[in-house]
Amino acid sequence: MTEGGAIGGTTMGTTDGVWVEVRRGVYHDSVTLMRVSRALAERPDVAEAMAAMGTDLNLEMLRRMGFDVPADAGPGDLVVAVRAADGAPAQALDGARRALEELLRRPATAAAPADGEEPARTTAAAARRIGADVALLSIPGPQVFAEAMDALDAGLNVMVFSDNVPVEQEIALKDAAARRGLIVMGPDCGTAVIGGVGLGFANAVRPGPVGVVAASGTGAQQVMCLLDAADVGVSHVLGVGGRDLSLEVSGRSALAALAALDDDPATELIIMVSKPPAPRVAGLIREAARRLDTPVVFALPAPGEDDLTAAVERALATLGRPVPRWPRWPAPQPTVPPGRELRGLFVGGTLRDEADAIVRASLGDGGHTLVDFGDDAYTRGRPHPMIDPTLRLAALAEHAADPACGVLLLDAVLGHGAEPDPAAALAPAIAAARERRGGPDGDLAVVVSLCGTAGDPQDRDRQAAALREAGASVFASNAEAARCAVRLLRGSVEGVPDE
Amino acid sequence: MSEARPRLGGLLTREPRVVAAGVGVLAEALAQQAVPVETVDWRPPPEESLAALNTVLGDPRRAAANERAVGRMLSARPHLVDVRPASEVLGLEPGAFLHAGPPLEWERASGPMRGALMGAMLLEGLAETPEEAERALARGAAVLEPCHHHRTVGPMAGVVSPSMWMLVVEDAEHGGSAYCSLNEGLGKVLRYGAYGPEVLERLRWMGAVLGPLLRDAVRRHGPIDLIGLIAQALQMGDELHNRNRAATSLLVRELGADLVAADAPREQVAEVFRFIAGNDHFFLNAAMAAAKAAADAARGVPGSTLVVAMARNGTDFGIQVSGTGDRWFTGPAQVPDGLYLGSYGPQDANPDIGDSAITETAGMGGFALAAAPAIVRFVGGEVPDALAATRRMYEICLAEHPVLQIPLLSFRGTPAGVDVTRVVRTGVLPVIDTGIAGREPGVGQVGAGLVSPPAEVFADALRALADAVRPEPA
């Protein structure tokens, strides 16, 4: 071996398929040498191999393995000992020798970049990486508790998009959040906006003075879109989850959200959006609202209460801002023969509820059906209809084929998280439905409530134009859309009656 | 709620930074808004542990209990204060032996554990021959107890007999103490189950020369701050379990003058220096005692899910948890994945053995692999694997060590304080550096590598923690 000479001499002996070599003063760390030993021993033509520094221990082991090691090998010397396998060809040891050189020369692998981290496995670990302040959890509801608690422990606020979370877990999470001065938005919270950033389903709105506390996702979206249409922005939208104002949960998150918005200097007025709460909880919330410095406008759409549009108009009045004419994109509608029914197909639960209240107040029950395709019954094992429109499109075609159906009332919800171009599927479906029923001179009217803003990724005005082109009358106000549908059902010939 | 604290952690005062777990489209929507978002590689926890997980995570005591427990562990300041025989310091009587890991009876003891106990019988003069020692042990002539039950830890078999000299470590912060025997070196040594004449001769020398000289030197020197020394060694490439070269050198430097200054014959002093210089693992036992003192400071906090001991007896792997007192949760010890000496192979290996996983328990060893990249090559890995291993441990730990820092990770503290709930949630098991003992008594070390605890010990501990959660008052 010529390499050894440069360092200080090599003694080597090869006899009868055994190679023993001492390389004086050559040091390799023990781990490297263990790897080398193993690699040599794994060669098919090698029976036994060991490469080690010549410590007493190693020398003893080599001798036990039957190698004849020179007596003068010491701890500063590298000792290599290889025994060829029985019947191995004469050049077996040459192969092992070359392999040894290769192994000892083996360059360090290029270091991976220091930031080449594996993805975090827990919310807390991910949070540490970016100094996060909020966690958005959309893992299956039955398993969300651990991640949410982890996030709270890490000092994060939590938005739980998932549904199917047991109510006692919701209460435990919200109590844990309260102890830490944090908030749990949800479970079943679809929408939040924090400092202009939309979490979940949220519209692109301008910054402004109105804070929203919402136990209803699409309710919050309707409110922020109408405010945006009135050139009034929002400070934050804090979702609290559909069950927060129930008797059990009793507004734990709503109270925290109200207090936080009251403290927020950017928020001049708060709109509280919810389905009607349990009466005792409503009292609790109203009492808390009275104690705030910031005025609170309630938007609790229900029969006999202001609808969302009216609540927004009240909020604008409180702020001293003018109420605009809400955006609308009318299309000529046929005269609907008497006795026909209204069919409402919604992706937004609160939009459905609001329309339902308006329809029933005007028309009574009369066979009119309004369905929320975002309801649990339609989302088990499926994405939300704001992401996947399949089921509603199928229902739309079915209703259009039913001569009893006189007016189709639909919603379309835009914003972050929603499908990138709802009109791409909805407009052709509407056009086909109208075509089937005789077009503008036929007997099927179509009205769309379009919840979105000009700044949304889907571009509200482009969506509206496509839907109108397909034959639908389109409204930014869900209440106006519902009222239009009612008038059409009553036989109005006006596509867009004046309010 | 304190008025000084901003509401919602200041959420409404700045652009949010978001962690997203679950549906990809929601994280994408955030990225499209140019918001800093970090996604979680979330995987469902085991179905059978879900109820216990929710109970324990919902325990209102847990957060404060863990903060207190891990806070005590990380604020411990263990000092080496003395070196004394086990008979004095532990009150260990003739015929009584301590061993590594959870409780174990002779019948279930593995080869190296039996070998070490036989050697200890011979050392203490309780038997004349190995065969006699074996017979005596088999008929129950000796009292066997875990080291951990006596504030003690022992590497590999961890056998402590009355005449062995112990490192005495005291925690200057919390006042606890911990003990560990003196390290014998590598190869044929008692802790790997060897009991031949050279093993006993070395142990006798350690009792007659090494122990007394070290005692005199330590007493003359005064308490040695072990965490300070360990922190330096970490920055010199040790992880304090399978690599103790830097720490051993630092200890020799610290004690050198006082070893020389003592009243011992010059050749004895030279022997001591030669012995320590020839044993890169000499400091391991001091690191273990330091880790034991720190971990013990965290014991007994109701509601805490912090692991305070991981230990193996060659048959079982056991853990103890702060919130469940002195109860052991055990499962079968695994065979380490590693490299073997000479012609040894996995068939020669004993299952995992030793109390040395106390180093991992306290945020060293495998958890500090990124500080000692050489060690990861035991399993054929590379430097990035060492970084990845340490980073993975952050996932299951409650804290980062305030003093022990890793240069390669920009001086981030080592992951410290294993949380039972995180281990169960993620399925990420602690990574432990270890030596590999031969399966047969008397063989000694056959290799070194990495090993993990059996997953079920954490699931069992979690169930016990859940059982200990009092139901909420209605």
TrEMBL record, chain A:
Signal peptide: none annotated. GO terms for biological process: tricarboxylic acid cycle. Residues 345-485 form the ATP-citrate synthase/succinyl-CoA ligase C-terminal domain. Pfam families: Ligase_CoA. One of its GO terms (molecular function) is succinate-CoA ligase (ADP-forming) activity. GO terms for cellular component: cytosol; succinate-CoA ligase complex (ADP-forming). This is ATP-citrate synthase/succinyl-CoA ligase C-terminal domain-containing protein. It comes from Actinomadura rubrobrunea.
From TrEMBL, chain B:
It comes from the Bacteria. It comes from Actinomadura rubrobrunea. This is DUF1116 domain-containing protein.
